[in-house]
Description:
The protein is 48% helix and 11% strand. By secondary structure, it is of the alpha/beta class. The strands form two sheets. A four-stranded mixed sheet has the order 3-5-4-6. Strand 1 (27-31), helix 2 (38-48) and strand 2 form a beta-alpha-beta unit.
Amino acid sequence: MNEEESIDAFYAELYKVILQIIEKYEIIFIDDGSTDNSLVLLKKLVKSNKSVRVFSFRRNLGKAEALTFGFAKASGDYIVTLDADLQDIPSEIPKLLALGKTGVEVVTGWRKKRKDKKYMVYISRLFNLFVNKLFNTGIHDYNCGLKLYTRDAAKSLQLYGGLYRFIPFLVYQQGFTIGEVAVEHQPRKFGKSKYGFYKWRDLPDIITILFLAKYSKRPLHFFGIIGIFMSSIGVIVLLYLTYVHYFMHQPVGTRPLLFMGILFVIAGLQILFTGFLADLMLNIAQGPKYLDESKMHFPLKFSTD
């Protein structure tokens, strides 16, 4: 998005690297609703190289949607993702490819010596430390834009929102092997970063990730435990009030505890039946594991498919 200053320099460096490592290739640019001249420059690249394909969204949809669409369009045995700002440099691709050819299905770059503003580096380190403590995959840099995938691994991903930040964990949970390679990182020479402190607004996605990892195939186990626990508290409260009313002959109709007991029973039953409905829908609609491109509706304004 809005990378007109870096596109030509990025393409020149990428093209030089590709010619050194492989003969048959394709380069897919996803223009995520740019408002500058990025699309104009990309169209020129299409005319100069038949192996370049460009897809442009009518509005900014986000990195997750751009990656998902790019994965769907890609046809290679190996798929490499790379931002166009030249902070992750194309000359590092052979390092990832070398590890990928040993059988590792997803290789992520590790910006060991990151060349960003200090506050961004600290935020990123805290984020990676927190996420790694939760998921324990051993990856140091979850959100490096430079990654290599096998075709199966890439096309298994259905990303939205901020889920692209957790790709190593997502593919690991699906049984793919993951690895990490230290890569060179450059200071940003063109444009400005689209991220920064605001990456923390995607932290709620961690809850989604944890749920998908443990309970996506058995939602009733998640909702059922919570529902039964809450209903049990409500039942205990109501039994206590029943004892107070019938055996101690005390009025309970105006006690807040009565309303709390009723509320817990009703809320618990609602949560329990939510899990039941989720389980039912999951068993009825067992969709394919891989992307069905015919069901993908991205608003394109230009493509060279």
